Amino acid sequence: MSVGDQLGLDDNSELLEQARQRWTTWVAMDARLGVVENFDDLRGWLPTVDRETADEVLVVLAMLGAPDGGDDIAAAAALAKCLLPGACTLAAWLCTRPDRSSVLRDNQPVTPGAWSMVQRIDELVAAQLWIEVRTFPWRRLRKVAANILMNTRAGVLRECGDQFQVARFDRTWAHTDLVEAFATGDFATDEAWREYPISTRQVRAASFRPGLLADPAPAPDEDQSPLEELLEVLAWACEQQVISADDRYLLLCLVDEASRVETRRTGRGYGGLMANELSVRVAPRVGVSESTVRRRASRSMRALAAAVPTRFGDQ
Q1: 136 and 257 part of one domain
Q2: Residue 192, domain member (yes or no)
Q3: 101 and 209 share one domain
Q4: Which range marks the domain in which residue 39 is found?
Q5: One digit per residue, pLDDT tens: the chain, 315 residues?
Q6: pTM of the model
Q7: Three-state SS annotation for 183-199
């Protein structure tokens, strides 16, 4: 699921349908919205004009969607829809920076084995984007897109535990050390009280997925899980500069979406990861075209296929 999916802002969403129906009413209320005849044309219009012109339209939507303005949820949804490209880019940026994306916190307990870091980041970005859209101070502030996305970024980093952002928001919490196991949100049950040895391969894999350290280490004779193996390989590949952090994020998005598709074309190889349906799903998440998704994925998997046997061939 993407940031837009988390907000329920697909093209058939009820809120966006309300925005379409109310567009002429909004234009009558504020002529600045009259730059397009209907709401569906707005997202295509915004990239064609300068920022100041676009801002005049976005601030009207911010006003209509704010509780101290029109308090119209459909207008807030319309504004959030316009800002989705930037929000998706932010989510991609967060997922390529594991040191800043420790998304397990005491207010978000996680059940072992049922967690996706990519999805969790999308959830955080979607939630913070909605907060910023609804609370934008439209009476005194402009540069709507830039300020909302900047504040969304700061809010998500704060939620993820970024020390700088936490210190800006709450200096006391920034200097607080969590000492109880359950406080890190690793488990939603009493398993938090148990102690497990941490294996080296868990530490390596956790460089992308910090929550992996919460999972019990496998017994010496127990096989490594597919997820651990994948994350370990990708972490090693990034360390050795076989692929970039952006390439790793793209591959993980493909794997994540592939797990949601029951039937996918496998004729192109790579376990079906080159299927058109997956490219369509992943392209908005990484901010590139579908053909670019397939090209970059193919290039990355060829690089991995050539490099991995030299490192893991004996395993």
Answers
A1: no
A2: no
A3: no
A4: 3-174
A5: 588 888 999 878 899 999 999 999 999 999 999 999 999 999 999 999 998 999 999 999 999 999 999 999 999 999 999 999 889 888 887 776 654 444 444 344 444 433 467 778 888 899 999 999 999 999 988 899 999 998 898 888 877 765 555 555 555 555 555 544 444 444 344 333 333 343 444 434 444 443 433 344 444 445 556 766 777 788 888 888 899 888 888 888 888 777 777 654 544 445 577 888 888 888 877 778 888 999 999 999 999 888 877 665 544
A6: 0.54
A7: HHCCCCCHHHHCCCCCC
